[in-house]
Specification:
Layout: H1 7-23, E1 58-61, E2 67-72, E3 78-85, H2 99-106, E4 110-111, E5 114-115, H3 116-125, E6 131-135, E7 138-146, H4 150-162, H5 168-185, H6 189-202, H7 216-220, H8 224-234, E8 240-246, H9 250-261, E9 285-289, E10 295-305, H10 312-324, H11 329-337, E11 341-348, E12 355-364, H12 368-384, H13 389-402, H14 410-422, H15 429-439, H16 442-452, E13 459-464, H17 466-473, E14 481-484, E15 492-494
Parallel strand pairs: 2-8, 9-13, 9-14
Antiparallel strand pairs: 1-2, 3-7, 3-8, 4-5, 6-7, 10-12, 10-13, 11-12, 14-15
Helix pairs in contact: 2-5, 2-8, 4-9, 10-13, 10-16, 11-12, 12-17
């Protein structure tokens, strides 16, 4: 019989052998290093960046005028599919702001023979759910499913888009939800700044002069008949597109689109492009009064460009240098140098019509005037301290290298396809973005900065303590201080305190 050593004896034997081996070896002394820290002088070289691959899209049209856009990606058996419509919140009738958002959300409250619960259950049976997103210039109703469930998902989407119930009880439920959301936002200074800025920059009667969510007053006035009229004008094959992204071919997409939407009829046409607003020098400073607020939200900007404008690439890069990144001039000044805020930023929101360029920050209330002065200084400095090659290259790399993030999921691809439809863009739009950013020069970017970031043309909106605003801003020569009328049709009324 084979016997094993007791554990303690085995451990002692192992130690004995190890000691013997150590006694029989001589370890030479390590050679001293001339400078043990010398390796720090040469940091590791970065690896080669991955090749930038922009998505490819195919587009065709069904006999009834419905467009279909397809982007193939076959790594996973998943497809994102949706119906893009060209009527967004800018199509809200004046005085009925919030109607588009409420109407599109109502689509999920029952369609065809299914009420809201049955519709949810039908999507759940194929492992998914439906969603709605609304922008100023369009809407997308869609879902994401395994490839094997795509045909059933298409049938459900066809019901939602072509046979929505739009029932009064469901309308009232969604209306209450939207009013509850707005009630919560009324206490949010950034939301209030956005509402006041839209009216100040575009005017009370412009389609972009109000927020898509509406106001408590405008939503409270909405009736189910308004939703039915809006949807009748918005939904039809000549004002819509089916977007597919993921594990699908163009041939299969054509087959499914024809089966589910080929008989769709309707008189809807795309809304008119919002007219370019008048851009005038700032004549006032708009304040949303919030007594006792420990911060002041600053938002300033102006109408700038539409999607596809010749200045699009140069202005986006100028905005990046000014306030588009953590290391931008505006953020480094207000946050890192002055310590006025946790962050300051700027961005260009190009739209189907002329969209705005915006710069904003939430600063300590006691430095409201000083922070505004720094905003103005950085805009002036874009002219007196021109954009350098290094700044431009950093902005260019930031824009180009961030593009793939928009397409990392099939849902992102489907949304990109919808944007091509909303803005009537060429299929190689994203290749042109890269080419446009690469072609920009310091001179062209500088020229865009001069055209669109002139401080005298920037509308200023402040949300904060009115006494602090009056004391610190009234004497800065920026224009009279005017109070924004909350929870009403967009309007302003004068208030003493400005000079």
């Amino acid at each position: 019989m084979r016997r094993s050593l007791p554990f303690a004896a085995a451990l002692a034997a192992t130690a004995f052998l190890a000691a013997g081996c150590a006694a029989s070896q001589t370890v030479p002394d390590a050679a001293p290093l001339a400078d043990p820290e010398a390796w720090r002088a040469t940091p590791p070289a970065p690896g080669e960046p991955p090749e930038l691959v922009t998505p490819r899209f195919e587009r065709f049209e069904l006999p009834n005028g419905l467009q279909v856009l397809v982007s193939e990606r076959h790594e996973l058996p998943i497809v994102s599919v949706g119906v893009a419509l060209r009527a967004g919140s800018a199509a809200d009738p004046e005085g009925k702001e919030g109607l588009a958002q409420l109407t599109y959300q109502l689509l999920l409250e029952g369609a065809g023979k299914r009420d809201a619960v049955a519709l949810d259950d039908a999507f759940a049976d194929i492992g998914t759910s439906a969603s709605v997103s609304v922008t100023e210039d369009g809407a997308l109703v869609g879902t994401q499913v395994l490839t094997r469930n795509l045909e059933e998902a298409m049938s459900l989407l066809a019901d939602i888009v072509q046979r929505p119930r739009l029932e009064r009880a469901s309308f009232e439920l969604r209306k209450k939800q939207q009013l509850a959301n707005l009630a919560a936002q009324v206490g949010n200074p950034r939301y209030l700044a956005g509402e006041a800025f839209a009216a100040a920059a575009f005017g009370a009667h412009h389609p972009y002069g109000r927020l898509g969510s509406g106001t408590p007053a405008s939503v409270a006035r909405l009736q189910v008949a308004d939703a039915k009229r809006f949807y009748e004008r918005a939904a039809g094959p000549k004002a819509a597109a089916i977007v597919f992204a993921g594990d699908i071919t163009a041939e299969r997409a054509r087959e499914l689109a024809q089966t589910s939407f080929g008989s769709w009829k309707g008189k809807a046409v795309a809304p008119q492009v919002p007219k370019a607003p008048e851009v005038a020098a700032r004549a006032r400073v708009v304040v949303v009064p919030k007594p006792g607020l420990s911060q002041t939200v600053i938002m300033m900007g102006r109408p700038a460009i539409a999607v596809g404008d010749p200045d699009e690439f140069d202005l986006n890069l100028a905005s990046m240098v000014f306030g588009g990144t953590f290391g931008s001039r505006l953020n480094m000044n207000l946050r890192e140098d002055k310590g006025y805020t946790y962050g300051a930023r700027s961005y260009v929101d190009s739209r189907l019509g002329v969209g705005p360029i915006v710069a904003s920050s939430a600063v300590r209330a006691d430095v409201t005037g000083a922070a505004i002065a720094e905003f103005m200084k950085e805009m002036h400095d874009l002219d007196t301290r021109p954009i350098s090659e290094d700044e431009l290259e950093a902005a260019r790399e930031g824009r180009i290298r961030s593009l793939p993030g928009s397409f990392e999921t099939v849902g992102g691809l489907a949304y990109a396809a919808a944007s091509l439809f909303w803005y009537d863009l060429p299929l190689d739009r994203f290749e042109r973005l890269v080419e446009g950013y690469e072609a920009a020069t310091p001179e062209t970017v500088q020229a865009a900065a001069r055209r669109y970031l002139d401080p005298s043309m920037m509308q200023i909106v402040l949300v904060g303590d009115p006494e602090i605003v009056s004391e610190q801003v009234g004497s800065m020569g920026l224009g009279p201080i005017v109070e924004y009328a909350l929870d009403a049709a967009p309007a302003m009324r004068g208030k003493a305190g400005g000079k």
